[in-house]
Amino acid sequence: MLTGQLSEGGTHGGVKDTVAFNEGISCLSCHNIESTTHLKGVASYRYEPLNPYLFFGSQSSFLNAVHDYLVSINPSQHKSDMAKDILFEPEVCATCHVQFMDKEMNDWGWVKMQDEYTAWLESPYSMQSEQAFAHSERTRCQDCHMPLVEGKDPSANSDGKFRSHRFIGANTMLPSLNNDQEQLAQTQKFLQSNKVRLTINPPNRKDATQSDKQITEDIRASTEAPAYYYLNESVKVSVVASNIGVGHNFPGGTLDINESWIAFTAVDATGKIIYESGFLEDDLSVEINAYFYRSLPIDRFGKLVWKHDLFNRVGETYKNFIPAGGSDIIEYSFKIPSWAKGPIALSAVLKYRKFNQRYAKWVLGDDYQDLPITDMARATIMVPLRQQPPVRTESAMTSYSTTTEVN
Hints:
The chain starts with 18 loop residues before the first helix and ends in a 21-residue tail after the last strand. Strands 10, 11, 12, 16 and 17 form a five-stranded antiparallel β-sheet that branches. A three-stranded antiparallel β-sheet has the order 7-9-15, with no helix packed on it. A two-stranded antiparallel sheet has the order 1-2. It contains eleven helices and 18 strands. It is α+β, with helices and mostly antiparallel strands.
């Protein structure tokens, strides 16, 4: 992923504090790709050297200006070099966003890892899956992560729009560390643009209270059983998380170090917490019993590979995600205490953080700072609270019981 400068002996991916090391993935990392060699990933592309204009790469500001002028008056060669046909196809994304390890790298065997391309193929957006009926046209990786934007750019189309090269996705870590507030704001806006939706199923009851008083069918207010809880009752709540806007699995990318989870709370009318899951501990880590969307890779000895040293990974003990167009149901169980005041507020929030806390503190070291947590989706419902009605005896059948709502 670097520009070719290796440490002595090639044992490390770059020489610290050099241009090549700091540059990382440069423009030519993509724009020099001429074709894909296969779709197994791990940089499976073929490069074609560009035909540089005069004074390309010069250290002189004057000669650089001359170079730019030559490009502007005759951009045909530049367009030919920089806009190859492969760049308009999702396959170019597969060259890096599909990953594996083989025996030469891990001394174990072939291990499948990240695969956004296959997840996209299996989604409704590719028009190549059994869900093709769900969309009228194909949506490519580029359409989401490189949307058309307006601006004064030489590559703009007849409408004055060009492809954004911000590559907005789910990386809130880098703009936070770089203090790039614009990139961070756009990334969080992207994450919150109805990509995943949460729904809390109301606890509609089959044992709704009835009286002996007869009423005619035409004056019934509702055909659905009412939703309420009793004091001292053990209850179950279902939360549905639906991936309605991500073109691949959610979460995508590095599932082992990304962190996405459901924060669920039940509070009474006075604000007292009845139940909570997915809260932050004092050290800003997520409590261990939260419901996570992530993977837990292990090495050949069954130990957790938590430092993202994927050459040690041979499998996973846990992997949880929502496929594109799919849903996940999460159930919470708790008891309504006798002191609770109605109504009960049930709230679920889907939270996302690039890097879990353990990995962030290790990898950032002295440069560690609290990483942003983004609320991607939220759902809240209010449930009335009632007292349990007394049990009627045969001798009391001529009278009827009522429930009292607790306020």
